[in-house]
Design goal:
Blueprint: H1 2-12, H2 15-38, H3 45-76, H4 80-86, H5 91-126, H6 137-164, H7 167-191, H8 202-207, H9 222-246
Helix pairs in contact: 1-5, 2-3, 2-5, 3-5, 3-6, 3-7, 5-6, 6-7, 6-9
Length: 249
């Protein structure tokens, strides 16, 4: 418990963390409200869920960035050394830090999703762009998938930080691989006339968890996509933890 309290103090006192988390929370809510205010046509629950899911991707990436900064700063400024000296069992402080980041991300993404849905549906309905708020299975699954994506990217950012141990490099990889790297790979698959191979790209499958339309047969089912994405996340984080446990800090 002391380890978790210590990690919470570290996280809550960093200015950059406050800024990033503030943007992560405010951006999807503000844009959802703005979009539903200016909408002048039918706005179904699927439309609203997809809008929120797309906006929450940015928040999820920022949660991952915060986790990456939290762990890489420990190595960059050598503050991890006294921590390991005080707690020779290295996994304990590392898992405490990961737990704090995951809990913060889970609470904030739940707030984002709930606030965006409530405000978006209320405003759209009041403005005449009717939102059909019946909770169809794809809508419920998409909202739940967006929450899981935020948690997964938080864990992934932490795991990559353990492996790379450099803040700019970790953040760059975390942001550029889904936005650029996998797009290039999918383009190569398309050139080879093997678009179906795209479903084996973990980021692509993870990001698709938050949308109601699962597309064609080139994607996995939502459940399989989530399991596949988290298998990669857990593998990367486990390797990072093992490396840190066995190597010099």
């Amino acid at each position: 418990m002391n380890a978790i309290r210590s990690e919470w103090i570290k996280l809550s006192t960093l200015t950059v963390v406050k800024v990033l988390l503030g943007v992560a929370v405010a951006f999807p809510i503000v844009i959802t409200v703005f979009t539903t205010v200016v909408a002048d046509g039918p706005f179904t629950s699927d439309d609203l869920a997809d809008l929120i899911g797309g906006l929450t991707v940015l928040s999820s990436l920022l949660f991952g960035v915060v986790a990456a900064i939290g762990i890489t700063n420990e190595f960059n400024y050598n503050t991890i050394r006294p921590t390991f000296a005080a707690q020779p069992r290295r996994l304990r402080p590392l898992l405490a830090k990961l737990t704090v980041h995951v809990l913060v991300s889970a609470v904030l993404v739940a707030f984002i999703l709930a606030s965006s849905w409530v405000l978006g549906s209320a405003i759209a309905d009041d403005g005449g762009a009717r939102v059909f708020v019946e909770q169809s299975q794809p809508v419920t699954e998409a909202i739940f998938g967006s929450g899981l994506l935020a948690i997964g990217l938080t864990i992934l950012g932490f795991g990559l930080g353990l492996l790379i141990r450099n803040t700019p490099a970790t953040v760059s990889f975390l942001l550029l691989w889904p936005l650029l790297g996998e797009s290039i790979v999918r383009g190569i698959f398309a050139a080879l006339d093997r678009e179906d191979w795209g479903k084996y790209l973990p980021y692509f499958e993870g990001l698709s968890m938050g949308f109601t339309d699962r597309g064609s047969g080139d994607t996995m089912t939502r459940l399989n996509a989530g399991l596949y994405f988290f298998a990669w996340v857990i593998a990367v984080t486990a390797i990072g933890l093992f490396r840190t446990e066995k190597s010099d800090a």
